[in-house]
Design brief:
The chain is α/β, with parallel strands linked by helices and 281 residues long. It has 2 domains: 174 residues, Rossmann fold, CATH 3.40.50.620; 92 residues, 2-Layer Sandwich (Pantoate--beta-alanine Ligase, Chain: A,domain 2). Strands 1-4-3-2-5-6 form a 6-stranded parallel beta sheet, sandwiched between helices. A 3-stranded antiparallel beta sheet has the order 7-8-9. It is built from 11 helices and 9 strands. Strand 8 and strand 9 form a beta hairpin. The mean pLDDT is 96. The termini are far apart. It binds adenosine monophosphate. Adenosine monophosphate (AMP) binds next to helix 2 and strand 5.
Length: 281
């Protein structure tokens, strides 16, 4: 695996690989990698002959400076993990490399409700920062396919809409959420959980599973209120538990009219904010 720190070096290598006929798969990450990230790389290998991963803790998508400061960073261990799954190239740029001084790369697109509900409501500005960095990274790498996890369902929805609005040729591939044995979705943030909160956190997935059963009998608002109570009673501080249309992310008016239904949740476990989701339909 070759490690690149500059746009110039990465693009020089990519040009050579493309000329040799290779297809490029891209896996953007913020590092502190776990099995969830590695499955994206493995999925990329299935359809692309070259896989590029990036590690960049993007300051513009953190609305809370403390969260940015506390975000785990371990580039050496990450490099070893990526190597172990046969990743071809790793791009670790500096902030100045991604956002060169004097250039305003801020993406200004109208995502409608997609970036305003749920995460958008509780983390103002988060999706503007996320979309800007994904667009910037796509412009640098110019991959054939982009691999992202269902774990961040709303992020995926915003990126899908961004690609549509930009008329991009990049194909977005959604990869299933990888979980611990007790159901907790793998996340770089899990390593910051106290032992007590680590023991409590699997209630999030259990609640999603139980909610999937309850919506068969009860109206969504009632199930949402039940789920919020259940998470709070367990000792978490839930921000939202929303059952929404899987495409528009708006509340469901008519269950039969929504092609996809997904429940999305965010909850604080001590001072660690966790998110998860489950596709109901
Ligand atoms: P992050 O580094 O957390 O920003 O995540 C980078 C990519 O990995 C995003 O596309 C995430 O959706 C994906 N990802 C994170 N956790 C998981 C997981 N547990 N299962 C599958 N994909 C994940």
């Amino acid at each position: 695996m070759i490690i690149f720190n500059t746009v110039y070096d990465l693009q020089y290598w990519l040009a050579t690989e493309r000329k040799a006929g290779h297809t490029i798969g891209f896996v953007p990450t913020m590092g502190a990698l776990h099995e969830g990230h590695l499955t994206l790389v493995q999925r990329a290998h299935e359809t692309c002959s070259r896989t590029v991963a990036s590690i960049f803790v993007n300051p513009t998508q953190f609305n809370d400076p403390k969260d940015l400061e506390k975000y785990p960073r371990m580039p050496e261990a990450d490099g070893q993990l990526l190597k172990s799954v046969g990743c071809h190239a790793l791009f670790i740029p500096s902030v100045a490399e991604v956002y060169p001084a004097g250039k305003d790369l801020t993406l200004r697109l109208n995502f409608g409700a997609l970036d305003k509900v749920m995460e958008g409501h509780f983390r103002p500005g988060h999706f503007d920062g996320m979309a800007t960095v994904v667009k910037r990274l796509l412009d640098i790498v110019q991959p054939h396919q982009l691999f992202m996890g269902q774990k961040d369902y709303q992020q995926l929805s915003v990126v899908r809409e961004m690609l549509r609005l930009l008329g991009s040729m990049v194909e977005l591939v959604m990869c299933a959420t990888i979980r611990e044995d007790d159901g907790l979705a793998k996340s770089s943030r899990n390593m910051r959980l106290t032992p007590e909160m680590r023991a409590t956190a699997p209630i999030i997935y259990k609640t999603l599973l139980e909610a999937r059963e309850r919506v068969k009998e009860s109206p969504n608002p009632q199930v949402q209120a039940w789920a919020m109570r259940k998470l709070a009673d367990a000792g978490l501080r839930p921000e939202y538990f929303d059952i929404v249309d899987g495409i528009t992310l708006r509340p469901i008016r008519n269950k039969d009219k929504s092609e996809m239904i997904v429940a999305c949740v965010a909850a604080w476990a001590g001072d660690v904010r966790l998110i998860d989701n489950l596709v109901f339909k």
